[in-house]
# Entry
Amino acid sequence: LRRRRALMNAKWNVTFDKFMSEDEVKALRKTLEAAVIIAKSKAHQGPVRDQCIIELALGSGLRVSELAALKIEDIDLKRGGNTLIVRHGKGDKLRQVKFSSSLKTLIQEYLDYRTSDSPYLFASERQDHMFPTAIQKVFKKWAKRSGLPARYSIHSCRHYYATALLKVSRNLRLVQQQLGHGSPQTTTAYAFALDEEITEAVEKL
# Structure
């Protein structure tokens, strides 16, 4: 545990206790899925939008500012398309982010359901798009209803995505590209995700 914390604090101020576990993410998703079923039965928009926000955060690793600024035209939902373009990332760097076919389906279902004509993916009742503070409140609301600790924020979705992607790919360069990290040293902080698996493998020798 000390090693993990040292890795996480080496370059930037992130602590291990801000990373959601698999079970916590499952609880969050289960709560949202139940709320969406009820919302659709009453023709309500909020939970459907909120589910898309959180699933996109979990499935793409976008920063909250990138989620807020994302436009529909920046998402490729055509057949064979599973890419979105981040135009307002950190340092205003343009990058492409790949996402799964299941997330693509969820985004399309959300777009088919929503009533707003805003060019932004996540519209607001008062302006043409949600601001980061509003997106943060959305996450906090559903995290609380799911019984998650108050220490988690929408950025915890980005951490979860990074560790999950690294576990599957074993490719730090790929994770760096998806997250838009300027330095590979920043991405290496997520190497702790492999520690448990390595320890288990060694014990089996």
In short: Residues 22-41 form the longest helix (20 residues).
